[in-house]
Amino acid sequence: MRTGFEATKNIPGISPLHVSTFYEPLENIYEQPGTPCRTITIPDWSDLNEICKLISQAKENSDFVITCFHWGVHFTYDLAIYQPDVAYAAIDAGSDIVIGTHSHCLQPIDIYKQRPIFYSLSNFIFDQPEKDVNKNIKKYLKVYNLSHKSGAKNYPHPRHCRDTMMLKIYLSKEKIICKIIPSFIGEDGTPRIVNRNSADGKRIFNLIQNLSNEYGTNLTDKGTHFLLESQDKKEDSRILIRERQMSYPWLYRLKVAEEPSKG
Asked: DSSP characters for 163-205?
């Protein structure tokens, strides 16, 4: 959250969730200065407690509660450590579904207490003419060595940000069923449902499945979509992500993928 955008008693704004960032060296820094590090992120427990109070209040007055967070690191499939912490806390407070935004690309689908967590659905409608592309956008993409030239009209994001999905959710007191519909943003900048057997379809279906399987989530491939039903999941994503050595391995892979082939 950017400082100054939070709501106050007299000024409208957003519900803040501050997150602290620490860097943990992977090796002995006294013997080897400059060693690579893990990025540790911890939510502000006071902010998170206030958010959970709001969720609990909403649950008292609603049959179902869907919580949305603007979070994570943009342009990577990887999760920041604090994301499962926040998602699980929201579900403990009464949220039935958690949906995230901000990364501009797909991220894993998780399950906690039989409640689905969609860390990011990617972009969908994100038109932005080239002449309106802020210099800062190009600047922070350069940090990741990624290009804003996606190959799609008026769509200044890395190419992998054109892979996306839609949700159709069926809610009942007995269970939650989610129909996950893989889609792709075409060269004209318009999102469309993909054919499972097309090149884009195969890639996006496999990507969604692989990202989610890594966190122990089982998706049923129905040929035109995935089906996600309430399920018991043994893996705790909070533990899985803390055991990871490299914080954002996909950023390196995507950087390599963005580079033009040689030879």
From this structure: EEEEEEEEE-SS-EEEEEEEEEE-TTS-EEEPPTTSHHHHHHH
